[in-house]
Amino acid sequence: MVRAVLLRVCVLAGVLGAVSCSEQGPTSPPGDVDGSLLTVELFSGTLPLRGVTFYSFSVEKGGTTFLTLLDVRENGEPSEALITIGLGVPRGTSCVSTNVLSVKAGGTPQVTGTTNRGVHCAVVFDPGNLTSAATFALNITRPK
Amino acid sequence: MSRTRVVLGAMALAAATACNSTTAPDVADSHLTPLQFLTRTFAGALQVQGSTFYSFHVSQAGPASLMLAAVQTPGGAALATPVGIGVGVPKGTGCTRATAITTPPGLAAQLTVTLNPGTYCASVFDVGTLSGTVNFAMRITYP
After folding, report:
1. CA distance B42 to chain A (A)
2. A48 Cα to chain B: minimum distance (Å)
3. Which DSSP state fits A24?
4. CA distance B60 to B35
5. Interface test with A, best of B55, B57, B124 (most A CBs within 10 A)
6. What integer pLDDT is reported at residue B29 of this predicted model?
7. pLDDT score of B32
8. Neighbouring C-beta atoms of residue A123, cutoff 10 Å
9. Do residue B93 and residue A119 have CB atoms under 8 angstroms apart?
10. Beta partners for A56?
11. What is the mean pLDDT of residues B89-103?
12. What Rg, from alpha-carbon coordinates, does chain A have?
């Protein structure tokens, strides 16, 4: 729990301040990011076995969006399972994503994509690596 | 002097003739683009106090309509139970409705709104009238 909170604080502070973090502390910048143009949303929930869930957000001005899978827990314990996260657009009853990556929970942005003005979504799904339903926390750092 | 007047008069007549031209415009000159509509069927289960939504992308400004065609028991028996339908924008894990009504199912559009290009969602939700899970089918038509 403390680790998760530390990672969240690190990533939030890191991206907004153009300095990213690891568990050991600030390390490298994620790029030339103007923090004043960004906002952060935390998408958290429960991911069923082989399940999928998504979160929609609106971007007023185009720019780069960063996804960071901060925490994954199975039965309350930190999980090393690879979970797929991605950026896309809401269509029908799901999030159609063309920019996906299977990652472990960590403290630095794992998926980066260009988001133009409009509605976008961040998707989280289990490609078959979980052994039980898992809780997760995904940080969405996006243009305002 | 008179020759000059004749020349000026001829020029004025030519200009007037050109300005009064009534030649019909070519079809290619028309800026009227007929709207093309897409239709999607959104069907699923609606739980007591629940809501569900379907996202779609409008490419041209124009009217979008929702027709709640059917509400049924899980066994397939038709119901006249009114439920909520609405149009909004996907936000977070749901659909933030901007317009909504409560309506029983029927075979005419119950809700029509004018939308600009962008991504929207059509929502179906229980307004407190359900006593158990029902199945529904809704037609979404948009430009």
Report:
1. 8
2. 15
3. T
4. 7
5. B55
6. 57
7. 74
8. 24
9. no
10. A121, B92
11. 98
12. 14
Q: Is there a contact between A57 and B91 if contact means CB atoms under 8 Å apart?
A: yes
Q: Give the H or E element holding residue B7.
A: helix B2-19
Q: Please tell me the distance from the alpha carbon of residue B23 to that of residue B81, in angstroms, as a whole number.
A: 59
Tokens 């509400």 locate to B71
pLDDT tens for A101-113 read 999 999 999 999 9
Residues forming beta bridges with residue A142, ordered by sequence position: A39
Cα A79 to Cα A133: distance, rounded to the nearest angstrom: 11
pLDDT greater than 70 at residue B53: yes
Residue A36 confidence (pLDDT) = 73
Please compute Rg for chain B using Cα positions: 27
Q: CB A119 to CB B118 under 8 A?
A: yes
Q: One-letter amino acid identity for A31?
A: G
* A vs B: CB pairs below 8 A: 46
Q: What residues contact B19, with CB distance under 8 A and at least 6 apart?
A: none
